[in-house]
Amino acid sequence: MSFVVAIDGPAGAGKGTITKEVAEKLNLVNVDTGATFRCVALNMIKENVGLDEEEKIEKILEKINIEMKSNGEIFLNGENVTKKIRENDVNNFVSPVSTIQIVRNKLLEIQRKIAEGKDVIMEGRDIGTTVFPNADVKIYLDATPEERAKRRMLQNKEKGIETSYEEVLENIKDRDKRDSTRKVSPLKKAEDAIYIDSSDMTIDEVVNKVITLIKEKYKK
Ligand code: DC
């Protein structure tokens, strides 16, 4: 038996930070499904495969091996790609890659397999709706586009990347639109997910709220 906590929401809502802290505090396996899409995008870049080259994409998917280590490191076909999957070429390519049906089918299989027999907290866009529609706890984490843009700017600054607020806000709005209007498995709150707007909350407040919700469920 495994216990599944699903955390969905748009880019910049804080899913990564919250999931990591809750996983550490409750000893759950942390699964970042965005990283699996990033691995496929990186593999396609490395092998020079375009978005419409279905046969070549199929070949990549047939032999792809994604490992998520307990220390958060990600390995793609044996290579440590933890940093590479966060670089700009992947950032710019991953969103269209995530709309390809055969990619989603394969990753759905991989994501379910990763969770088999474990207690997991899994973050993404469609975990509560598609990957684990029967998840024990479902949370939809949101924040206003303006707040998410501010957070992303800070993150970029820490990484030494200078971006303008307007540019980041525009990019976030574009991604929201693409992620929520795509045909396959769009970003959408599951009907039974608990909605948390983190715009005016601190990280600790959100973490505590999520932990309380999980503990309430455990008691039942
Ligand atoms: O969370 P992230 O920025 O690492 O996600 C990268 C991309 O993958 C993003 O464009 C949305 C997509 N994605 C998805 O479609 N479904 C998921 N479960 C997770 C991510």
Describe it for me?
The protein has 220 residues and is α/β, with parallel strands linked by helices. 52% of the residues lie in helices and 15% in strands. It has nine helices and eight strands. It has helices at residues 15-26, 33-46, 54-63, 88-97, 101-115, 127-131, 145-158, 165-181, 203-219, and strands at 4-8, 29-32, 66-68, 74-76, 79-80, 120-124, 137-142, 194-197. It has a five-stranded parallel β-sheet, with helices on both faces. Strands 3-4-5 form a three-stranded antiparallel β-sheet, covered by helices on one side. α2 packs across α4 and α7 (145-158) packs across α8. The two termini are 16 Å apart. 2'-deoxycytidine-5'-monophosphate (DC) is lined by residues 11, 33-34, 37-38, 94-95, 98, 124-126, 179. 2'-deoxycytidine-5'-monophosphate (DC) binds at residues 11, 33-34, 37-38, 94-95, 98, 124-126, 179.
